[in-house]
Amino acid sequence: MLENLSVKPNDLERYIYLVSLQDRNENLFYRTVIDHLEDTMPIIYTPTVGKACQSYGHLFRQSRGLYISLQDRGRIRQILHNWPHHDVRVIVVTDGERILGLGDLGVYGMGIPIGKLSLYTACAGIHPTQCLPIVIDVGTNNKSLLEDELYLGLQHQRVQGDPYKELLTEFIHAAQEVFPDVLIQLEDFATDNAFTLLHGFKDKACLFDDDIQGTASVALAGIFSALKITGGKLADQRFVFLGAGEAGVGIADILCQAMVEEGLPLEDARHRCWLVDSQGLVCDSRENLAHHKLVYAHHHEPIDTLEEAIEVLQPTAIIGVSGQGGKFTKEVLEKMAQMNERPIIFALSNPTTSSECTAEEAYRYTDGKAIFASGSPFDPITLNGKTFYPGQGNNVYIFPGVGLGVTYCKATRVTDAMFLTAAHTVSQMVSQEEMEQGRIYPALKRIREVSARIAEAITHVAIEEGLSRMALADVHLENIHEYMYSPEYTEYM
Question: Of these four, 155, 216, 301, 412, which has the most CB atoms within 10 Å of its CB?
C-alpha cells in the first residue's frame, strides 16, 4: 500500500487511492492509516479533503453514507432503518453550507463526514460499523454546482426557514429513536444554523458541534500548553480573535469558562476576549450584531482594522479563525513580538490556503519568539540555526476522544465540562521533551493514547453529572483500551 501510495503524482490522487482501499478492504485501510497517521491524515482529511469535496461528483466511485433531502420529509426514520448496521454509535452530519473555508459545496460536502469518521476509528478506535456519515440536502447556492451536470444533489437554491428547521428536527428525533446510543456531531453548518441547532438540541439530545466546541477545546489545550512555556496565568491574558463566527465565539466561550474555573468573574473574563470581524472591532456601538456576538460587544470606540486593534488592545495572543489567508501580516506579527516576550499566534483556519499566516512567517517576523499553532499541518522551520516545530491545533486531538468517552459510558448528553476536561487532558499529555522542542500538542503518533485518556476523563465527568449509569469504580483505562477497535490480522499456524 505504501509503495503504491508513494508513486501517486499528487495528494488528490493519493486521496482517491486511500478511499478506494477503504471501500474494498477496511481493515487494511485502518492499519495503514493508524501506523502512518502523520503521513495519511493530511490526505484523508485536511487539507486534501477540501480539494476532494470541491470535485466530489467527478471523483465519485461508490456511495458511502446516507443522503437525506427535503424530499424525504416524513420518512427519515424509514431511511435510517435502511442502514445495514444497527448499532450506530456516532453520526457526523453536515448540510454542506460551510465546508472548511471553501463555502457552500452542497452534497459534495459528504467527504467531510466520511473523513471525520475515519479519524474517529483511526484515532479513537470507534468500530467502523458504528460510524454513519450523513449529508442533509436542502439545495445549494453554489452557482457552479447548480450548473454541474455531475452534481449529485438537489439542483436548486438552498431552502431555509421553517422547512429547514422541520427537516433537521425530524432528523435528530429520528436518529435518537433508530439508534438509541448515538452521538450526533454537527459539522460545517453555516454560523446561524450551527448556533441554532446546538443551543436548541444540546440539552435534548446527545449532540455537539465540532466547529464550535471541538475547535474551542483544542485551542484551549494549546493555550494551556503555551502558558506552561510563557509562565503566565490564563486570567492575565488578553485575546484578540480575527473572526467572530462559530469558531471564534466557541473559543472565547471556553476560554471564559476556564478563567471562571480559575476564579475570575465571568464578566471580567469576557472583557479579556475581543472579536474582530469583517466590519472591524465588535463593540457595543455597532448595530445589527448577530446574537452570538453580543456578549463580546464591549464598550469601546470603533476600530476598523486588526492591526489597529492590536495596537490599542495590547493582546498577549491573537487567534485567527477568519477563513482568510494571510491576514496575520508582517506588520501584525512584528507588532505582537514588540509587545510580548513570547507572543501566542494561532492561525487556525483550514485548509492551508486559508491559514492567517504560515509557520515560517510567524517565526520569521517575530524573530523566533512566537508560540505558534495552525489548523493545517506545516513542516518544521529552521531559523537562525534553531528548528521550530509548529503545533497543529487540529480538532482530531479532541473529537475522537470525546466520542470514545461518550460511547464507552453511554452518556446521554455532551456537556461543556467535557470539552474543558478534554482540553486539560490534551495539554497534560504534552511530554517534557515535546515542550522543550516548542511543541504545544502531543505527537500525532500518540493520538490513540490521548483519546483513551480523554475518554477516561470524560467518563468521570459523565458519571459525576449523572449522565451515565456506569460506576466510578468500574472506570479503568485498560478497559477503554480493550473497547477500542484495532485492525489486526489473525495468524494461523
Answer: 216
Residue 490: is its pLDDT beyond 80?
no
Q: Are 30 and 484 in contact (CB under 8 A)?
A: no
Domains for the chain: give ranges and CATH numbers. Answer: 2-205 (3.40.50.10380), 213-393 (3.40.50.720), 396-483 (3.40.50.10380)
Residue 363: active-site member: no
Kindly tell me if the per-residue pLDDT of 493 is higher than 70. no
Per-residue model confidence as pLDDT tens digits over 330-378: 999 999 999 999 999 999 998 888 899 999 999 999 999 999 999 988 9
Joined together, the cell numbers standing for residue 210 give 465540532
From the list 30, 56, 108, 116, the catalytic residue is 116
What is the rounded distance in angstroms from the CA atom of residue 88 to the CA atom of residue 113? 14
Q: What are the distances in angstroms from CA 257 to CA 204, 236, 268, 427?
A: 22, 14, 11, 16
Taking the C-alpha atoms of residue 420 and residue 403, their distance in angstroms, rounded to an integer, is 14
45 given a catalytic annotation: yes
310 φ, ψ (degrees, to nearest 5): -65, -40
Query: Are 420 and 220 within 8 A, CB to CB?
Result: yes
How many other C-beta atoms are found inside a 10 Å radius of the C-beta of residue 164? 18
Q: Which helix (H) or strand (E) holds 241?
A: strand 239-242
Cell of 460: 468521570
Task: Find the catalytic residue in 15, 30, 45, 120.
Answer: 45
